[in-house]
Structure formats: structure tokens, C-alpha cells
Amino acid sequence: MNEAQIQAEIMLRVGSLHGVRLFRNSVGEGWVGRTIRHDGNRLLLENPRRVTFGWCPGSSDLLGYRSREVTPDMVGQTVAQLVAIEVKGPRGRPTIEQTRFLEVVRRHGAAAGLARSVDEALAALGLVQA
Known about the structure:
Blueprint: H1 3-15, E1 20-24, E2 28-39, E3 42-53, E4 62-69, E5 78-87, H2 96-107, E6 111-115, H3 118-124
Parallel strand pairs: 5-6
Antiparallel strand pairs: 1-4, 2-3, 4-5
């Protein structure tokens, strides 16, 4: 399976679990403006403006939340815990920025990890062991 297929399977199977929601996080940049001419591979824009999208460079492919019940000594409320899953194909390797992002969000309480399969995604969320 390639990375796109793995990601689709993770979104379908993990995202359908009770209390878990996942969203695709595409990170990148592009340009917007009024199109003057579009010839195949060439695009001419009037008043071009650079736009960026996604959380930040290095942020995970799949972001979302996992519903968690706070213990009674913490008022007994249910809260959302950040979930971050960096999806890679069989030979894919995370960038330094992706590794740092996972480390930072984990350090601050998120359920986060690298996944090459649904089982690894579930393990990253603490739902099963890989």
C-alpha cells in the first residue's frame, strides 16, 4: 500500500471510532489573484498574493481529537485531546520538522505518532498495541 492508501484507510477506520475525529492537514503554499491567462502549465495572475495553508511546516498529515473523560478529581468533565498522526508509506521517512512536531505535541499532552498502518495509528492513540 502507498502512503495515500494507508492514510485513507486510517481516516476511515480510526476516524469511525467513537469519540475520535480525524481531519486531513495539507501543508503548503500557493498563489491567489485574478486569473489573466491560463495556458496548460502556465498561469498569469493579476495582483498575486502568497497564501499558506495547514497548521505549520512539519505538522502531521492527520490532525483531530480524541474524547477523554477527566477523572473525578479533575471535575469529571469530558475534554478533547489533540491527536496527530504522521502517515508514511513502507519506505517513507519523516522530515526533521515532522519529527519535532510530533515530539512537541506529545510533550504537551497530545496522542501523536508515526503510522504506516491502521494498527500503528491505533497504537499512537493508545487504543491498541502495535
